[in-house]
Amino acid sequence: MFIPFQETTDLIEEVSQEKTLSIYNLIMDGGLGGQIIIALLFVLLAVALYIYFERFFAIKAASQVDKNFMNQIRDHISSGKLEAAKALCDNTNTPTARLIGKGISRIGKPLDDINKAIENAGKLEVYQLERNVSVLATIAGAAPMIGFLGTVIGMIVAIHEIANSGGQIDIKMLSDGLYTAMTTTVAGLIVGIIAYVTYNHLVVRTDKVVYQMEAKSVEFLDLLNEPV
């Protein structure tokens, strides 16, 4: 049987439209339970991105240390200009400078006391660098579980529809539950992956700053041990 070209084109367009479904429609067709879980996941995603970018720029600023900083500290201490060395540290807003400044303020006391003061100051600086980073780890673990919760809710809805169908199973009756199950799982995994990757990236960047602080602290202590 011959089918006119125009009817064939309309049929193809109709099938194409039926197979196309936007993310918005997926969320809206997922029922109230799915919409609540998706909204919660979006909030978690926004929190994760905010923490990541806020910490990223803070850690980036903390890692920027002038290459001549320690040379200037060495010159000031060798010349006995402790106030100038302390002023240089105060004017340099980095964790390394604050550690060195803490050590300079303890010059004249036993070396063990100076080392202890630097260690205590270092712990405070690391705490500041890692502030709120643990929240990313929590989101990385919680988001997939929240998504799986939506999956369970969606399956319960689907089973409920089957139980009330009286033996007449209609796929349209199951769509809300299936949409909830699939969309929340995907959303939870996406948020979890993003939070996991950003968390590990911040940990690596923080470790680099900590190693830098340790290296400069050792260099400062070696400077104090040099013979006059």
TrEMBL record:
Task: Return the Pfam families for the record.
Answer: MotA_ExbB
Q: Where in the cell is it found?
A: Cell membrane; Membrane
Top-level taxon of origin: Bacteria
Assigned keywords, A-Z: Cell membrane, Membrane, Protein transport, Transmembrane, Transmembrane helix, Transport
> What's its membrane topology?
Multi-pass membrane protein
Q: Name one GO cellular component term.
A: plasma membrane
| InterPro entries, per database record | ExbB/TolQ_transport, MotA_ExbB_proton_chnl
Q: Does the keyword Cell membrane apply?
A: yes
Regions crossing the membrane: 32-53, 133-159, 179-199
Span of domain MotA/TolQ/ExbB proton channel: 92-214
| One biological process term in Gene Ontology | protein import
Q: What is this protein called?
A: Outer membrane transport energization protein ExbB
Q: Which organism is it from?
A: Tenacibaculum adriaticum
